[in-house]
Amino acid sequence: SIEIANTSDTVTLDGAIGAADIADSIIVNAGAVLSTGGNSIASSDDTLFISGQVLLTGTNGWRTAGGRDTISNGGSIVYGGTTQTVSPIIGGVILPKLIIAGSGASTLGANISADTVQINSGGTLDASVSNFGIATRMKWTNNGTFTARSGKVIFNGGATVGFDGEAITDFYDF
Q: How, if at all, do strands 95-100 and 76-79 pair?
C-alpha cells in the first residue's frame, strides 16, 4: 500500500503506476494532494481511497478499468492538464467534487455524476460530440468555459443545488 498523509506539500508521481507496482491500495488522506505529474494510474487490481485531492496532469485522465475506487466527502479529482478525457469513477461512485482546472479542453468520455462541478478560470469542460451528460446534486460553479453541445446537465439535488461563477453558462435543454 501507499498512503499519502495530511501534508501541506503535494506528492508527485515520478512514473506511471501499473498492476505490478502496488500490491494493495493507494490512500490519499484528507488534506493531502497526489499529483500524477503527467503519469497514469492504470493499475487494474489496486483500490484507491481518496479523501484528499488527486491532481491529474498532462493528458492523462482517471483510470477506466479495474480496481475499486472510494472517494469520500471532501475528496476531489482535479483535471489540471491539457486535452484530457473526463471519465466516471469505477463502480458508479458519485464524485464529491470534480474540478476542471487545465489549460486545454477536458472532454467527457461518458456520462458522469458529481456532487459539485467546478470549472476554474481558463478551464474548459466539453460534453463532447457524443453529447454525454452530467448529473450534479449540490453546486455548479463556472469561471471558465462549458460547452454543452446537446449534452444535458441534470440537477438532481432538489432545493440544495447552487449556482456560482463569473462565466455565462449555456445549458442544453435547461
A: parallel
Reference 136, options 101, 170, 97, 80; nearest CA is: 97
Identity of the residue numbered 172: Y
pTM: 0.89
Q: Say how far apart CA 15 and CA 40 lie, in whole Å.
A: 8
Residue 28 belongs to what H/E stretch?
Answer: strand 25-28
Q: What's the rounded Cα separation, in Å, for the pair 26 and 51?
A: 11
Over residues 100-116, the mean pLDDT reads: 93
pLDDT digits (tens, 9 = 90+) for 34-54: 998 888 776 556 677 888 898
How many angstroms separate the CA atoms of 90 and 108, rounded?
15
Place of cell 472517494: 71
**Strand 33-35 to strand 134-142: parallel, antiparallel, or no bridges (unpaired)?**
unpaired
Could you tell me if 109 and 89 are in contact, meaning their C-beta atoms sit under 8 angstroms apart? Answer: no
- Residue 57, classified by CB atoms within 10 Å of its CB into exposed (0-12), middle (13-18) or buried (19+), is buried
Supply the pLDDT for residue 89: 79
| Average pLDDT of span 77-92 | 86
Rg (CA), the chain: 16
Smallest Cα–Cα separation from 151: which of 105, 109, 95?
109
